[in-house]
Amino acid sequence: MTDEEIIxxxxxxxxxxxxxxxxxxQYDQEIKIIRAEVRNRHSGKFITNYEALKKIEEVIxxxxxxxxx
Length: 69
Description:
mainly alpha
């Protein structure tokens, strides 16, 4: 999920917690796909809810600072 997608969903009214759940789900699915190959079975790391929330909050704060909202 890109920063622009996060901002669009946030502007539509989704809360930070809901965005964090979606971000975590998508990120973990990508890691599962990478780990499906035998060569990469130990690659990547799943993220926690707190790490996903941190990422979402950073993106939103960065957006608000840039636009001086």
